[in-house]
């Protein structure tokens, strides 16, 4: 057993425990309170003057699939507009130094997505940034279907002459065609009127779309502007799928509608007020506007666009512009855990949850605070 004592414990789920203790054993949090008496063989960590928080979570990044500072990348399969048969997990290099960067920044769980040059890019995976084995680090796979609302592809057309729409109309058309085909295929299959497709690639595509239609995983949509989101609302009304807005630079302009539909926004990366010239309505208090409207908001880095180690700095900027400290910490922990569908395991400090914990020298949202210790599954990894 490891007992962390005398810490300021930010549980996220039920307030702050001053000078509190947290006991971890067999990878789980087993006790929590103002004082815990260690057993004779316990390892005791004195955290006087320090903050203990749940491991931070980046629910949108490309760690391992887009190595920072390297020419090669497995982020985008630029051979077709629809590659729902692909899995981000198959492209991850677990030796990427970004996993160490994540731990340096107190990030213990991430969601890795395929890139954004395809309309339907493939499935995403939720995993931990450290662990004894690759299989043991996976939290959920597939965790979502990555989709991009980007006319002409981000940074230009996909390679090899693959057809790709140049307008939002074209994107919506392809999306509608694919989901109609999947719905019809699954319906005839369930009624026994057809047999599984012989083509394994096409069968896999329709199976992944079917998981979305059956609400077994959400669609994670790379989109920024209201004009993108309106089309998604219409498609949601038609097919009934669940989706999240990824990036959402101008999502605050439709905050009320997002809230009424219970559509989360995974916001960022935030580099400045108008870091991307085409999104002139972007503003540093957008996270507060969305949160105040009742939207579930999480901060993201889109690593390597912003280093995963600097996830908490995204929250710090928004606190400076009016977001409450409590809400900001939740947007780094429990909110992304909920969006990833793994909040029963991570995202808060509660008895029974995974012992993914970070000990900061001071306020986690202060640029001057250091990460003094990181625990993943109860094992100190930093």
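-> sequence recovered:
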């Amino acid at each position: 057993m490891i007992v962390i004592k005398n810490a300021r414990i930010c549980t996220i789920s039920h307030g702050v425990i001053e000078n509190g203790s947290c006991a971890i054993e067999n990878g789980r949090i087993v006790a929590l309170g103002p004082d815990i008496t260690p057993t004779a063989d316990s390892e005791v960590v004195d955290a006087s003057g320090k903050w203990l928080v749940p491991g931070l979570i980046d629910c949108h990044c490309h760690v391992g699939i887009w190595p920072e500072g390297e020419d090669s990348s497995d982020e985008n399969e630029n051979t077709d507009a629809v590659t729902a048969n692909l899995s981000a997990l198959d492209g991850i290099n677990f030796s990427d130094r970004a996993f160490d960067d994540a731990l340096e920044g107190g990030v213990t769980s991430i969601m890795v997505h395929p890139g954004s040059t395809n309309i339907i890019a493939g499935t995403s995976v939720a995993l931990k940034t450290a662990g004894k084995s690759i299989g043991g680090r996976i939290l959920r796979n597939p965790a979502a279907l990555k989709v991009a609302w980007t006319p002409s592809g981000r940074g230009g057309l996909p390679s090899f002459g693959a057809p790709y729409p140049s307008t939002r109309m074209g994107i919506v058309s392809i999306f509608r065609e694919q989901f109609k085909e999947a719905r019809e295929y699954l319906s005839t299959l369930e009624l026994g009127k057809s047999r599984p497709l012989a083509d394994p690639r096409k069968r896999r595509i329709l199976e992944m779309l079917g998981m979305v239609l059956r609400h077994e995983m959400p669609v994670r949509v790379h989109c920024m502007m209201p004009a993108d989101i309106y089309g998604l609302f219409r498609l949601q009304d038609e097919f009934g799928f669940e989706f999240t807005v990824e990036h959402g630079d101008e999502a605050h302009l439709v905050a009320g509608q997002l809230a009424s539909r219970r559509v989360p926004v995974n916001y960022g990366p935030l580099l400045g007020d108008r870091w991307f010239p085409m999104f002139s309505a972007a503003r540093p208090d957008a996270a507060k506007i969305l949160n105040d409207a009742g939207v579930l908001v999480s901060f993201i880095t889109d690593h390597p666009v912003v280093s995963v180690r600097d996830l908490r700095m995204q929250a710090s900027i928004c606190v400076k512009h009016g977001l409450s400290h409590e809400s900001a910490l939740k947007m780094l922990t429990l909110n992304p855990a909920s969006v990833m569908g793994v909040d029963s395991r991570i995202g808060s400090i509660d008895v029974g949850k995974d012992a993914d914990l970070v000990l900061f020298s001071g306020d986690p949202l202060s640029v001057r605070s250091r990460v003094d210790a990181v625990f993943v599954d109860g094992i100190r990894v930093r």
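Confidence is low (pLDDT under 50) at residues 152-156.
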